[in-house]
Design goal:
Blueprint: H1 13-25, H2 37-50, E1 54-58, H3 61-71, E2 79-83, H4 89-96, E3 100-104, H5 114-120, E4 125-128, H6 140-149, E5 153-157, E6 165-166, E7 169-170, E8 177-181, E9 194-198, H7 201-211, H8 232-263, E10 269-271, E11 278-279, E12 285-289, H9 293-302, H10 319-323, H11 332-340, E13 341-344, H12 352-367
Parallel strand pairs: 2-3, 2-4, 4-5, 5-8
Antiparallel strand pairs: 1-9, 6-7, 6-11, 8-9, 10-12, 12-13
Helix pairs in contact: 1-8, 2-8, 3-4, 3-7, 8-12, 9-12
The structure holds pyridoxal-5'-phosphate (PLP).
The site of pyridoxal-5'-phosphate has 14 residues, from helix 3 and helix 4.
Length: about 375
């Protein structure tokens, strides 16, 4: 069997044509407040999909998160609650603002544990960043309830969950902030890229300013801003990829069903993201293995299945956060997940015979 990677970008003639059209136009970027033609086209498609009044394209998921924090004026002396089990950008952006990341533990489904969040809210808390881990929405209503009670903001890290739904609502549908990533392995991609979604006019305006050096009409910096603009070639690719989103999600769901048939019959392997009020987008198909996770990963990779562990190290144990004194925090569920999770390829590039083979190899590897 040819090696099946955990995720790959799927690009076709339409993306090539879109890039060529930008090159032919000579308009590679646009430093206006609104952005260029393809940025606007992508934003229109994204906001229609998510159902928000605004979508603001930026040049990474990290930029989307950082822009949101800056737009909410999070800074030194402030605290932001983040899950310990996530990609480190979720916490790094808090440090970038000079604020303090406060790590919350996770629940059984790998998403932020809201009982722990409640314990960790203080007078200094300015925002909570729940992550839709692996493309499975966090308990967004409950996060919002906590936030409203304390008048703090929710910045949803939806980097992995474009197209997922929580109680029938798309992830990122909010009047606070929803943050998406268009990194090369994500549900759709432009190589690098990201976007913010919101129903709040004032926040959308701030975010557009932050994306563009704080400028509104030429050289008139009004607030602290950066260059977080999405280049037109990337926006053109993202726009084509938006048209493919539904079919990509359908293929991920089809592949996930094949895997679940096998996983549900296997002892020692457990799927933990299956609440009926959420629609998973299966950015990653992740199981909890009772034992021998690393051996199973190795065996699968030797057999051509690009299994991987996301994330082997929770953020508070990363070298940087160790140096900052976070490593000893009691975050037992995050530590356990890091030692037991394993993700299998489920992306739309995996054909039906291939996903059957992935499921079979997984069963063999777990049975040892
Ligand atoms: C949960 C999460 N947050 C943030 C990011 C950052 O996105 P980007 O790589 O586009 O900066 C990613 C993806 O890389 C992610 O998976």
């Amino acid at each position: 069997m040819k090696f099946i990677p955990i995720n790959i970008p799927l690009l076709g003639k339409e993306e090539k044509d879109a890039v060529m059209a930008v090159l032919d136009s000579g308009l590679l970027t646009n430093a206006s407040y609104e952005g260029g033609k393809f940025v606007k086209e992508f934003e229109a498609k994204l906001k229609a999909k998510v159902g928000t009044k605004h979508a603001i394209a930026v040049n990474s998921g990290t930029a989307a998160l950082h822009t949101s924090l800056v737009a909410y004026e999070v800074g030194p002396g402030d605290e932001v609650i983040v899950p310990a089990f996530t990609f480190e950008a979720t916490a790094n952006v808090v440090l970038a603002c000079g604020a303090k990341p406060v790590f919350a533990d996770i629940g059984e489904d790998y998403n932020i544990d809201l009982a722990d969040v409640r314990r960790k809210v203080t007078k200094k808390t300015k925002a909570i960043i729940p992550v839709d881990v692996y493309g499975y929405p966090a308990d967004l209503d409950e996060v919002r309830e906590i936030a409203d009670k304390h008048s703090i903001k929710v910045i949803e890290d939806a980097a992995e969950s474009l197209g997922a739904e929580y109680k029938g609502r798309p992830t990122g549908k909010t009047d606070h902030s929803g943050c998406f990533s268009l990194y090369a392995t994500k549900v759709i991609t432009s190589g690098e890229g990201g976007a913010i979604t919101t129903d709040d006019d004032e926040f959308a305006d701030r975010a557009r300013l932050v994306r563009n050096h704080g400028m509104q009409a030429g050289y008139d910096t009004r607030v602290l801003g950066f260059n977080y603009r999405l280049p037109e070639m990337a926006a053109a690719v993202a726009s084509v990829q938006m048209d493919r989103l539904d079919s990509y999600i359908e293929a991920r769901r089809r592949n996930s069903r094949t895997l679940t048939e096998t996983v549900s019959r296997l002892k020692g392997a457990e799927l933990r993201q299956s609440s009926s009020d959420r629609r998973h987008v299966w950015y990653l198909y992740t199981v909890f293995l009772a034992k021998k996770r690393d051996e199973v990963v190795q065996r699968l990779r030797a057999r051509g299945v690009g299994a991987a562990a996301y994330w082997e190290t929770p953020v508070h144990k990363m070298p940087l956060y160790k140096k900052l004194g976070y490593a000893g925090l009691a975050l037992p569920m995050a530590n356990t997940a890091a030692a037991h999770v394993l993700s299998l390829p489920v992306h739309p590039g995996v054909t039906e015979p291939e996903i059957a083979a992935v499921a079979e190899e997984f069963a063999k590897a777990v049975k040892g």
